[in-house]
């Protein structure tokens, strides 16, 4: 629920950051004076290249956000994908990703605004629940 935040135009805030042995992933909230609040997922592939899903517009109300990371099946495969759902609706999916991690579980997880793009962001961000699972079953709102 971004309603408790005051964010200048173009400002961004990380909601959650996850790192495995080889990859990093962060779910971000962005504010645009013309587009309102938008979510997206940034991630780094096996080549060290940062990539992003499309911007998904959201309202300033409560939302259920799910991000599914499916790692590549081998170190040389490019069959990984990242999917993003908002309120139970698939909003974006990046596929054909070169993202492989033997253990497929994070060794670091940071929540609750671990990164902000501007010191002028202020207010309260509400993160009510976080679920980390080792399967691809829908969590739901």
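Q: What amino acid sequence fits the structure above?
A:
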């Amino acid at each position: 629920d971004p309603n408790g935040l005051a964010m200048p135009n173009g400002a961004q805030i990380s909601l959650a950051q996850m790192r495995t042995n080889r990859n990093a992933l962060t779910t971000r909230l962005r504010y645009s004076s013309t587009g309102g609040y938008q979510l997206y997922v940034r991630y780094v592939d096996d080549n060290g290249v940062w990539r992003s899903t499309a911007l998904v517009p959201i309202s300033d109300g409560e939302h259920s956000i799910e991000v599914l990371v499916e790692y590549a099946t081998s170190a040389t495969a490019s069959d990984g994908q990242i999917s993003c759902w908002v309120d139970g609706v698939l909003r974006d999916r990046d596929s054909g990703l070169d993202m492989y991690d033997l253990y497929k579980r994070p060794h670091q997880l940071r929540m609750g605004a671990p990164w902000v793009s501007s010191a002028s962001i202020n207010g309260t961000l509400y993160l009510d629940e976080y679920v980390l699972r080792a399967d691809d079953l829908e969590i739901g709102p």
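Q: And what stands out in the fold?
A: The radius of gyration is 15 Å.
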